[in-house]
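Consider the subject:
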Amino acid sequence: MQRIFLLVLLAALGACQNPPSAKPAFGFSIDVSQKLKVGIVVVDGVYNTELTAPMDMFQHTIFHDEVGMQVFLVGPSKNPVTSFEGLRVVPDYSFEDAPEIDILVVPSAEQSMDADLRDERLMEFIRQRGQAAKIVLSLCDGAFVLAGAGLLDGLQATTFPSDIDAMEAAFPAVQLQRGVSFVRHGKFVTSVGGAPSFEAALFICQRLYGPIAARGIAGGLVIDWDLSKLNYIELP
């Protein structure tokens, strides 16, 4: 009788625990049992690091998770885009034919603070897809584009350190934060850009797939990863 009682008790305790396949949430409901679609927006003048850092991190999830992410580039058209540094890339989709996007990535570009904000097609694409996406990540001055689309109103955010004052003046509804690598407020993650672009993307990987996967991704790129040592802000 005691043996039967013990077996029943152990079974009950096991039922109360998360199943082995359960994975951490990002702070809201995201189903990571299905492949997440990552759309990275590329326009002429995009900066190499802000493009390649999240692309590396998110593409490498397929080696550290059963499902992982599908990463693709979205441009104004399917014509080649030339980065600020001269790298030529070909978008997989245009604004008109891009598929559903779960994670929208907006890298910084040379004109993110001015001309891009007046590009109605770009801003409408960012507005619509940003509202529909489960997670939105901006790097460096990509935050200007999110703010210009009205997506950051009332939220805390950050951008390239020397451009914070300009963004604060242009978008007073956004609560700009200084001295941090990135800010996560709700589904929006804004990064200072540059080398810390890797940190913001790895942070998302860890929140979605857990620390073991994040460390595996970091190790493959020879990054010493410890989220607890980073200076960032995270809000519900």
Q: What stands out?
A: Confidence is low (pLDDT under 50) at residues 1-25. Residues 30-235 form a domain with the Rossmann fold fold (CATH 3.40.50.880).
